[in-house]
Fold each of these.
Amino acid sequence: MSHADLVMQSYGRCCASPDFFDSFYRHFLASSPQIREKFTNTEMSGQKLLLRQGILNLVMHARGMPDTKLRALGASHSREGFDIRPELYDLWLEALLLTVSEHDKQCTAETRQAWREVLKKGIAVIKAGY
């Protein structure tokens, strides 16, 4: 099984967990005052839907989908947009991996490494838009 397939299966198990996205945002917001500041006026139910789709776009990019949506995300998160500095994506990834470990009951060290490898390609596209 490819790393992208392993991640897709893991993500399916995570999405089946009702608190997955809430847990992610608890971890992510706790990771930095800068992160908390970025979400001060954010409507979180809509944000969770965007996150759900964004993770899927990252996985699909690793499976060969063009980077069009990720480049658009990079543009919206650039200096001229939401001004999300590239190093904040590292905190995002660590919060996501922690949350996956909690919500995917089949998660192993191999699963976490697959997530890291699969997402880093797409995260690089987003960071490049800064």
Note: Residues 109-128 form the longest helix (20 residues).
Amino acid sequence: MTTSAAAETAGETATETKTFPYNRACPFSPPPEYEDMIEQDVSEVTLDGSGLRIWTITGYHTIRRLLTDPRVSASRKHDNFPFYFVAPPEYRTETSFIGYDGPEHTSTRRKAAITFTYRQVQRLRARIEEIVDDHLDLLLSLEPPVDFHRIFSLAVPMTVICELLGIPQDKHDFFIKHGTALLGGHSSTEERQAAIVEVNAYIQDLIDLKKREPGDDLLSRAMADYEASGEEYTDRDLFNMVRLLMNGGHETTASQISLGTAYLLEHPDQLEKLLGNPDLVKPAVEELVRIATIGDTAVPRVALEDIEIGGQTIKKGDGILCLILAANRDPEIFPEPEKVDIERGSRKHLGFGHGVHHCIGADLARVELEIVWAKLFQRIPTLKLATPFLDIPRKEGAVIYGLWGLPVTW
């Protein structure tokens, strides 16, 4: 065997034994390993932590079909559910509608959905504008450089979701800390388990308070809805829903704010377009959600029966991961997919998921992002990164991709 052949064989072996998830080439590009996986559409990978062999799907059309296929389940209770980290037992049992199927999913999701309708979200626009302005005031009161991610990106959506759920604002740091433990890529099993216990204990106290003193908030309305419908429910149903909305309502939007802001600062041609035409903020949101795809690996499923896809048979009980980052770069759907053009504005991306589990807070996230990027650069036109972008630590391997910080100055 020649030296080059030996090296090639060694490289193939290293690729075969490398565990999933893989690191991105840069914050906005798929991992190099995705190249072959995209060609195949359906591939097998070994998960980090568990060593479980599961299937990955990369094709845009294939993923859309699969996410509306009744032969796949979102339930975390299946033995081969594709956790790509060592998950504590509570990750299987302490879930809400994101991990339910069928009527159970529909019933539980409906309790929260009324708060997140397009009409309801538009009514919140004025209050969200106030929140954004308040946090921009705070940012400008500090001496740069500052961590934009901590001071602004995390704080804005946290304030919004706390108000919606009726959670006191002094609990920001508590939920940010535990949200990072639950969704971050560096947390140990013990840290994730401890976070669930502490968050559940707090939410239980909150539920008891809302039972005594109901207010105009999602939690109070959900309890009233259960009572009016006569449906049986437990406090566990409520705190699983609240915990899901808390984590999903701030960590995701915070990551998108920081990544999108960094992208615009790194690409002044796109920022100039936005500043020159404020009406571009809506399409800009869609394009920045597409290119960042913070939920690349956040769509796990399990096959309920044998499924044929692309000449492969996914067996009943097999775990599946839909790789949204790859789907959002399908050239048939997004011409020149690696090129970011804030005028593209396509809503065909899968950044908010697809099917019955489409992100319940998508409209809220869109409004928050629109307001942030409409105001941020108008109020701080000299904003710039204080650290080279590629030197900023990233949340590789996290459930929600993002940055650990974003140092800025002006």
Note: Residues 42-382 form a domain with the Cytochrome p450 fold (CATH 1.10.630.10).
Amino acid sequence: MDASGEELADRVRALLTLDGGVEEKRMFGTRAFLLDGHILVGARSGGVLLVRVDEEHGAALITRTGVEAAVMGPRTMGTGWLDVSPRALVGDDDLAFWLDVAREDAARDD
């Protein structure tokens, strides 16, 4: 992963330190942050945040500026996996919004 991806991972880590049970793993070239074994978010090369959401919620969120369906290898994923560009993650409040979205959607899955 490149420097901007590592920087994003550091920011994510700092905001998630209060959450018990969050685990960090390298997966598919991404620094993934998991809760109870399920991916919440991932820091990707280029400072892109991969966010796992409920498909219906993702369909609404994909309309936001700087958000698109995640691409993994040759595959474009459905609206349950979103890539959020660095320009949409400028401040910690922006990043915290996406972390909250991922946590809320993960809680719905349980």
Note: The longest strand covers residues 38-44.
Amino acid sequence: MLSKSAEYALRATIYIALKSSEDHKLGIDEIAAAIDSPQSFTAKIMQLLTKNNGVVSSVRGPNGGFYLTEAAQKLPVSAVLEAVGEYGILTKCVLGLKECSESRPCPMHEQYRTIRTQMKLMFDKTTIRDLAEETGKGKIVINNRPVKKK
């Protein structure tokens, strides 16, 4: 349902929230390996996530890398979708019609409205920290193996 960009952005953000701090920043190689994403694709996603003081913070240089601030960890997961231009999945017509509405619905409008509302609520109410904490318990994965909290 989500694009690869959105999937990798969510996985990267969770991993960074789990493993980084302002004192311990993560490099692109580590992030890409941890989320099973090509390094160049991960770099493009990280640009979107850091753009305009976005979800992820970054520092250039020898001690640089990516990290999440305390404030960023409290952001809803929908902020990650917004950063990579995928928030529309929670608001648009499932068939991609511009004119789909209550008065002029597509064939899937009624069924998808309920699903879309539930998805929007889930992405708006769940924080990045919530997902990182669940992943850190070791039973939830963002890869083919559990990630332990540092």
Note: Strands lie at 57-59, 65-67.
